[in-house]
Amino acid sequence: MHAQKIPTAVRLLGFSPGEGERMAALLADAPRSGPLYSPLHDDSLQEPDIVLADGTSPAALAQLDGMRCAPPALLVGGSDGDGHVHVEPPVEPSVLHEAMARLLAERRRALALLSARGEPLLAERRRQPRLGPAIDGCALRRQPPRPGKVLIVDKGGALRDHLARLAFERPLAIAWTDSAPTAVRLCDEMPVSLAMINTAAPNIDPYALSFAIKSQEGAGRTAVVLLVGKGFPYDSERARDARVRGLLDKPVGDRSLVAMLQRLA
To answer: Taking every annotated instance into account, which residue ranges of this chain make up the domain Response regulatory (predicted)?
Structure first.
């Protein structure tokens, strides 16, 4: 069943609000026997598994080209010959679902091959112009590691324990608390590179907690990320005011967690 699957993250690019809602509705109506698709929020820090873009939008094409080691992309409309798969508008649901499933299968095969070769599976969004042709699975441009711990704010320590079990390139010091005042105190007493706040944690206002953390002296490089479930009404404006770096949608796959920690921790 869909509820038991880790959703396939889809980044929508270049669509008007109405057309974006239509594409999201088509993805939500995918056959239950196939992948479960989850369009990413604009504030999401999760790396997409697939990009679905308006092939007639120059801004979308430029954004796609600006991604470091971009994932497979399906373009609605536009000209062939750019190395991407195209479908013609108005896109039929069956055509969209078939093309998406085919791209996802190709991506899984490519990732399995990279894993077998011991090559990196994950890539960051590019911060500099591409110097040459894109290569799937290319190595990351390394940034100096940030000192500090990862702080988990949640009702239990399961996420902390899970992160500790994941294989990272370097050890991570992970702390946990279920108390907002304790989280603020810990961020003041020790260097914290990343604070992850589960919005489902009881008696915690994630925006107020982020603002309190970021208001402390020396917290400029502490990235605050919200773990957001479907029932939480995420507010982009409040998040910006609280200096939240972004969000991850739950359930979060291990690859997405590793990618975020590689970037922020």
So the answer is: 149-265
CB–CB of 10/52 below 8 Å?
Answer: yes
Give the fold, CATH level 3, of 149-264.
Answer: Rossmann fold (3.40.50)
Which CATH number is 2-117's, of 1.10.3720.10, 3.40.50.80, 3.60.21.10, 3.40.50.2300? 3.40.50.2300
**Which pairs from 13-17 meet CB under 8 Å and 24+ separation?**
13/51, 13/52, 13/53, 13/54, 13/57, 13/60, 13/63, 13/64, 14/53, 14/54, 14/56, 14/57, 14/59, 14/60, 14/61, 14/63, 15/53, 15/54, 15/57, 15/60, 15/76
Global pTM value: 0.78
The predicted-structure confidence for 201-243, as pLDDT tens digits, reads as follows 999 999 999 999 999 998 888 999 999 988 899 999 999 999 9
